[in-house]
Write a structure and sequence with these properties.
Layout (H helix, E strand, L loop, with lengths): L15 H7 L14 H7 L5 H24 L5 H25 L6 H14 L4 H13 L17 H6 L6 H12 L6 H6 L5 H25 L3 H6 L2 H4 L2 H11 L9 H4 L7 H6 L6 H6 L8 H8 L10 H17 L24 H6 L1
Helix pairs in contact: 3-4, 4-5, 4-13, 8-10, 13-18
Amino acid sequence: MSEVIHKRDYSLLGTEGKLAEEKGLVSADWYTCPVPSKRLKELMKRKDGPALLHTFIWFVLLAGSGIVAYYAWGTWWAIPAFFLYGILYVTPSDSGWHESGHGTLFKTSWLNTVMFRLLSFMTFKNATVGRWSHVRHHSDTIVVGRDPETPVRPPVYYVLLMEFLRLNGAPKEMMKIFLHCFGRLDKQEREFVPVSQYRKVIWEARITMTLLLGVIVWSILIKSMLPVMFIVLPMFYGTALSYLITMAQHLGLSEDVLDHRLNTRTYYMNPIFRFLYWNMNYHIEHHMFPLVPFHALPALHKEMKDDCPAPYPSLWAALREIYSLLAILRKTPSYCIVRPLSDKARPYRFGPQDNQEQQKYG
């Protein structure tokens, strides 16, 4: 028998946030795997070389696919050509935006800033709003009423389908950026963006909107869709892989816990997908130690794996689990997967009350 469906308020403006605070879930001490401090310090070392090489290879692939798409324009070959270009445009830019927002992509600070600004434009994100939203996502991961990136339960299935072409999220983001141009942040954004950052939000939005309008005017003047196809529309037609990867991060896992092993997935990927995703498939590792750069996440995974649930063997294995969950969540929204730990692992930390094990090990 399905449970009586009680829809929780996933906004940051309702009572759930206050309840989370009363339960001790807000900005709390999270469980961390026992990685030796000397080794962790080594893994946290930032470098320019790996990201420069990664970015160079990505831009060469993007340019190459763009040239093929350009010459295929006007033929049926343009469909697969632009699909490939879109995947190469969106997936690395979304993941690279995330990593550069942490300031861990490069050792050199200005390189992180330049990359973050560029990728914010490419992904239709306001850089400052996105950065502060993600700070909250890390401090209160999947805490209902606190984390603006928490997957809603039960899932809205038509929205899930629309997001394969980003038909729900992109228009909303563009409307927000449009309103930012006039100094208007919505109430949820005001919950996590400091007042001191509002002016920066406004000017970022104005620059983004000017650039987007410039691309559209360029297309009109030359009477060709190509500028829009290469710069604006990839975030619609090329978003499928990025969306599937993002879906696998947290969907169907525990809410309101203080252990990233319970609310985050790590899964193995083939080398091509892992390159496009900047190693973010090691997502438990990233959430637990967010200052470890992308290039060191495989090594961090080796240090942590005995204390974590077994990784999913592939992205598709994680997605198969998620798809099987969708029907369950429709009838039983509170259902979540708790994966078994090995005998070597410490017990899960479900909340502030079960912190004895954490204190025992220090």
